[in-house]
Amino acid sequence: MMRIAVKRLASSSSSSCRRNNTAMGKVIASNSNSTTISPFHISDSVISDHQALVHNLETCKLSSNLRAATGTHGRMIKIGYGMHQTLISSLISVYVSCGCSNLVSQLLKEIHCWDFDLISANVIIAAVMKMGEIDIAKKVFDDMPIRDVVSWNSMIGGFVKNGRFEEALRIFKKMLSLNNEPDAFTFASVIKGCAQLGGRDRAEWIHGLLIEKQIAINYILGSALIDMYSKCGRIETAKEIFETIQRNDVSVWNAMIKGLAVHGLALDAIALFSRMVLEKVSPDRITFVGILTACSHCGLIELGCKYFDLMSSYAIQPQLAHYGAMVDLLGRAGCIDEAYAIVQEMPMEPDVVIWRAFLSACRTQKNSVMGEVAINKIETLKSEDYVLLSNIYCSANKWDSAERVRDTMKKNGVRKNSGKSWIEMAGVIHRFKAGDQSHLEREAIYKVLEGLIRMTKME
pTM higher than 0.85 for the full model? Predict the structure, then answer.
């Protein structure tokens, strides 16, 4: 049965792995008449078949050698290890490292009995979460008779990495309800998820649990807490945490500088950078992204240029993120020509993020000519790109051009995405879209909104 399964894997694989999958069938066929495992041969007379297979799979994973992996898979089937739990979980990890998620899915479909041991199940969950196969991970997790903290951490961390923050918090609460004790790794993932949701009450609840469980705050948790409170609007709390934890790792400083930057506290971020240098913590590339972002948000052109040049003193080569921050800085300040010069002088190809930053600057400065240049450089246009270009034309009184952009949007089936916002009240997060009429208290909300608009106009 499993011999047929492997052949099916080879024949049904995606185009990205098709060439190697063809080789898979050949390797399996050749192995059917041989006792060696090519290209990593270990004599069965020296160590057991099982040990040889384990060694081969580890080697395949390190080298991401798909051909060798499929050969080992064929060997597993031939000598009766085709359903061995530990080997199957290792094989799945190898296929993930080779970037062949389709082989993982096909392999798991052929496994009719999911009673993996604890270690094997944990390996599978981590592997399939890495490739975004959340449903498979959930099935393995739900079928586990016994779970340890690694099992819960793999699920929570997997949800967070795949942008499923609400589900991550739900499974964390389930973990607590079943009296499973979280560890530092659990909290690192949960705090990161909470930061993305931006809920203050949740942030305080999780922080309180961290203290209650007496989890030591290392640099990973410290930087995560600072980031969480910064994103939840509690920059003062973030500062307090920063002052009370060990700061010998650069990631803690980076989190605080980034938090100050997004809150528009550029001078505080710059002062913190100076303090960082005095405390003999060397900045890295992420530090400079934070500083340049801070300068950009506050229009500090000279300081931004100074810190951009300062990177070379720390043997840091500017990367796309740094050039993007400089384009944003110059564009916001109205220096469109200088921003375009930065783009042209970059030693690497500008990515879509940089062109969108430049397009946004063109919108601010009402420069339709350079806006067209940016649009032509963006291969896959999104609704916001069309809207920005249309707004540039409108601000320049080029109504025909603006209408042409709108017609192109209709023709290509592109719709403008509604603006979104949310607010937390009494521990509940309320979400809104522009023009939303779905909230149960919409009449009261719009009444308050109209009053605010009147007050704004009066001011």
Answer: no
